[in-house]
Design goal:
By secondary structure, the protein is mainly alpha-helical. 47% of the residues lie in helices and 5% in strands. It has 21 helices and five strands. Helix 1 links the parallel strand 1 (15-19) and strand 2 (41-47). The radius of gyration is 25 Å and the shape is globular.
Length: 502
């Protein structure tokens, strides 16, 4: 490897920029720093499914990753630099690459997973001991989790104090511009592969057919989505974001998950609209608080690395989850529960790799409270089927719905799927789109088809239990059963808290 110059600056070897969940050129501190050195840049993506503890990406995420890598490769190529793709353990690949190319430095953006943080620490120590410059940057979050702590020096576990503290911190740094040009590296590199060799896209069947139109790839597409949202959907976001048939959502979550757009870019774009008076304070504040919720989830993951596998509140370790009957679980996955708003959400998820946020809460609540199925099973299904499956937000939000997470919704708050449908899809536009077999029902019965008289069902072409299923469980019965399970858990927790006999 190439040593540092005597004056402390990096020697004139190439600079490696290691891309991970930050597949963009703008507001990328590691790429910006490497470009500023004036050295040849080696842009690298390592598809690592070998390092212990790193959670393999879900199928829908892999599809979106493929599209984003292709777009990043094109963007870098236009700036004079090739994206080199490798498969294998990150430490092995990068050590070999640095030695082979005589790299003077390596730069990347930090992540919050325990395995990822451990890998980064080992690599940083190794490269520095070898005489290379090895520097990581914060670019995926608004603030660094290791430094954003309570007054007592611990992590935040409740969102409102976290949000208040984040606002007191002031505005995050302005987004960095993309480098206008990069100096490519023409030296020898072995082991790189083509993007298709990663096997990220589905085949036989291609369940993502048509997704390219739903999720156009790359930074320019993300920027256009952001502009459209700010111009058309941001006004009224505070209330309208709860209505799945409306246009008050940005649909930027997959781009944010893979760093095609940064949280700082979104924050400052909304602030500019707010300052210009084009978006009201309430709507802007709600959007920024949603960015802060994502931030909160990643801070939780950093401090509590088993977030996806372990109840945040240990008392829920005693919760009497039911062993899911395969047919019941499959009905939930396929959108055949007999509750139209739940079914619409689950079908939207399968068809598009996305589900509206309000409906995510309803569908998740239905699984853990109506069916008493462990939240981890639902989290795993969402992880596999969401294009925006985020390693922090996905488990944190499932734990929130289940009542066992940080700052969680009380378990006894049980969504009534009929009332949720009537409140947030009052005209039935969302349900009719994804559950077309009941589309001819009048609004009055759309969210509870079993309440419709026989003549109404016949006029709508519905045969209960055949063309559309009967409810998999009665809401009133399910609610009482869930409350009884909660009471049983609380009783067990209270018994454990009693002093032992002496």
């Amino acid at each position: 490897m190439t040593a540092h110059k005597e004056n402390g600056g990096p020697a004139a070897g190439p600079a490696i920029v290691w891309f991970r969940d930050d597949l963009r050129c703008a507001d990328h501190p590691a790429l910006h720093h490497a470009a500023s050195l004036g050295h040849p840049v080696i842009a690298v993506y390592v598809h690592d499914e070998e390092t212990a503890g790193m959670r393999p990406k879900g199928a829908a995420q892999k599809w979106f990753l493929h599209q984003s890598l292709a777009a990043l490769a094109d963007a870098l190529s236009k700036k004079g630099c090739s994206l080199r793709i490798f498969k294998g353990a990150s430490e092995t690949v990068l050590k070999k690459l640095a030695a082979e190319t005589g790299a003077a430095g390596i730069y990347w953006l930090r992540r919050t997973g325990e395995a990822e943080v451990g890998t980064d620490r080992r690599l940083k120590a190794y490269f520095r001991q070898s005489g290379m410059e090895a520097t990581s940057f914060n670019g995926n979050l608004l603030h660094e989790p290791s430094r954003f702590l309570t007054g007592s020096g611990g992590p935040y576990k409740v969102f409102t104090p976290f949000w208040n503290a984040l606002q007191r911190k002031g505005e995050p740094h302005p987004p960095l511009p993309a480098p206008e040009a990069l100096k490519g590296f023409g030296g020898k590199m072995t082991g790189a592969c083509e993007l298709d060799a990663l096997g990220l896209k589905p085949h036989s069947p291609n369940w993502a057919d048509g997704w390219e139109a739903l999720w156009p790839a790359g930074e320019a597409s993300a920027g256009q989505l952001l502009d459209d949202f700010l111009a058309q959907g941001a006004q009224g976001y505070g209330e309208g974001r709860d209505f799945p048939a409306g246009g008050n959502v940005s649909r930027l979550s997959p781009y944010l998950r893979f760093g095609v757009v940064s949280p700082c870019q979104l924050w400052h774009a909304m602030r500019q609209r707010q300052d210009s008076g084009n978006v009201g304070d309430r709507d802007a504040g709600k959007f920024l608080s949603e960015l802060a919720w994502r931030e909160f989830c990643h801070h939780l993951r950093f401090h509590f690395p088993d977030l996806a596998s372990r109840n945040f509140q240990p008392k829920f370790d005693r919760f009497p989850w039911r062993e899911p009957a395969s047919d019941i679980l499959e009905r939930w996955k396929k959108g055949l529960t007999g509750y139209p708003v739940v079914d619409a959400g689950m079908r939207e998820l399968w068809q598009t790799g996305y589900m509206h946020n309000r409906i995510r809460m309803v569908a998740a609540s239905f699984l853990v409270k109506h069916l008493l199925i462990d939240w981890r099973i639902g989290e795993g299904w969402f992880w596999d089927t969401l294009a925006d499956g985020d390693p922090a937000s996905n488990p944190a939000n499932w734990q929130w719905v289940a009542g066992c997470g940080a700052d969680a919704a009380p378990y006894f708050r049980i969504f009534n799927p009929v009332l949720q449908g009537r409140k947030f899809d009052p005209k039935g536009e969302y349900v009719r789109h994804y559950v077309p077999e009941i589309a001819r029902l009048p609004d009055k019965y759309l969210h509870a088809p079993w309440e419709a008289p026989v003549p109404v069902l016949e006029a709508a072409g519905i045969i209960p239990g055949e063309t559309y299923p009967a409810p998999v469980v009665d809401h009133t019965h399910a609610r009482l059963r869930a409350l009884a399970a909660l009471k049983e858990t609380a009783h067990a927790d209270a018994q454990d808290d009693k002093p032992a006999d002496r």
